[in-house]
Amino acid sequence: MNRRAILAIARKDIQAITANLQVWLPMLIVPLILGIGLPLGLVLAFRFGAESLAPADVQAMLAWLDKLPAGELAAVLSTMTELNQKLIYVGTNYMLAPFFLIIPLMTASVIAADSFAGEKERGTLETLLFAPVDLRSLFTGKVLASLVPAVVISLVTFLLCALSVNLAAWPLFHRVFFPQFNWLPLMLLVIPGVALLAILLNVFVSARVATFQAAYQMGGTVVLPVLLLVVGQATGALVLSGLVVTLVGLVVAAIDVLLLWQVLRHMNRNQLFASQVR
Q: What share of the chain is helix, strand, coil (3-state, %, to 5)?
């Protein structure tokens, strides 16, 4: 592969992103809502609103907490006497995790959907396909242009989330309680893995459709598995502990390897040109 070509392609795609409001606006709105607004709203709602809950609601929340699997989480919750402390601790450290995965998924999907379909709409695909660059270098450059912003935005959002959550809940905990250990494999293994998964799917799809919108809509289905994690935790059947998060990351990594092999195996210059140029 050509390293200079890879960096040039990645740089070109990132510059195209910054110039396209349709691409970078969702990349800012989704992290602000899911990574900062949602956690901060959750903390403030439980901090100031837990005491005003109806008895039936309190009992329902206590029953939900009792459904959580026994283990380290149950031991930590047993040391807390206030309901709002328990709800904030579980909500931020565990319930928030699946929602946070949507940030790299959506960010990577938006950029990757623009990778080939966007080239067609801008009328630059023909030039790119005729350039003296091997297809693997072209593909790698576009993957980097999607992966790096997705991971960086996720990490920055995570730092801002941790800062705002701990400041908002400081009067209750008087210590840094977020994040816990389960967020380490989430940030270092799962988030890069799901971002790469979204990129591979969207690059494959966007190479075969004519518009950015079509590629983005088809690639957006990668969010569906995240909803299963949300449902699992909401019912108390699943807790994203450090072990569970690590296992999820390994499964995602295995899927990435398989999908990468399939994408590279089926992608060729003539097919791209025939499907895009009319």
A: 85, 0, 15
